[in-house]
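**Fold in tokens:**
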Amino acid sequence: MRSIPFMLSAAVLAAGALFLPAAQATVVAVPGDQTNLSSKADKMISFRHQKHSWVTADQQFQLLYNTGSTAGDALQLSTSPDGVTWTKKLTLANSDENSSADGSLNGGLLSVVYSTANKGINFAPLKYDPSTQSWKIKGPGQVVRDGKDKLKGKPAYVPSLVEDQSGNFWVVFLEQTVKSGQSSGPAVLRLYYRAKDASTWSDTGLAFHQAADRPYDAPKLSARLVRTPDSIGMVIADGADIWWAQRPADAAWNGNWQASQMLIQGTPDSEADVDPYASHFSTTTDDQGNIHLVYADAKTPYYRRFNALVSEGGPAWSQNSIAFSDTPLDTGYPEVSYLGGSSIAVVFNAHVEGKVSNLRVYQSASRGSSLQSFKCTHLLTHEPAPDGNQVQYQHMRNEMPAVAPAAGVPVLLQYQVPKNGAWNYKALNYSFPASTTPGCTAQ
């Protein structure tokens, strides 16, 4: 089997991107609707690159979010017909306010991996019944990696999973050694494997981006697994930089991957990013196998594509990134979604000094094939926070399904309000249709 060549020029690493200013056009403003979502956890709907929302075949919206509960059931799967009113369907055992999850929907089966209250990683296969709009765990949940009860001092964070072309599952997560009284420690990305229909997981023994010392309070190392045309790959956020690693198609399950290579060299200044760094990137894959990546660097949102087709220079990453602005926008939480056909949508928060912070929608009807294919189509708005009430919208987290219906793409925007001396987190819901008609300005 042939491997995937890596294509990247020194000029791209050094700097440049193609800049795409917002079109000057009549503003198509979409106001948000208040939802009944509420949480004490700041990662309520969004954390790093993980996906927390999906649309099932019956057009019901599904959301796995963190309620902030400390009773061992913080991760909750809820369903909504409109994105506004959400109904609890089930909770994931051994989850707390620090747990985060990633999921992949295939028909009526939602495969979920999440970090547990005891700092391990669990896998939960969830089955949807559209006749009752209910969810249940399909068989027993599975432990991917034990928590610190058995692996003391090595908590696991930020898992990601992918199902390969043969039905095998792979999970990658951050493991960082914790020593009492220390402010930093060794960190590494670990990869686990489960064969199709198996009930146990195996450590591949592979280590990615191993570091002898990283700060505990901001480990900023995580990875997202994705399918490639003939195997799987990994998009890695390591500090300000984004890297790419791939598994040879003919490799054994515990065989070596090709060495990771830098895809995007970020701005090495922690003050330059709201996020900070590019750790909240987002990916989706279209029906041709193209991987669409959006990320933020130095407060500016960017887009990059992995071309699957040989006729388009693939399989390889495009040589340039597209910048959606030539000025910083305080962007930290970009999202990308495939809308079917040749349509993709990108959403990111934009804060212009002296103006309210809103979400901008950019869309391409040609799979993000060029700079010119993207149009700023909608502005997702909210009412300004009243002076003095401490409600905060700036640097908003948002969540959008990786695959969404073209007739109405759902987006959730998280904001925070003070409550009893602490922050409480709530969300607005938006919906916009597929379009390439310009509908927002650089303002």
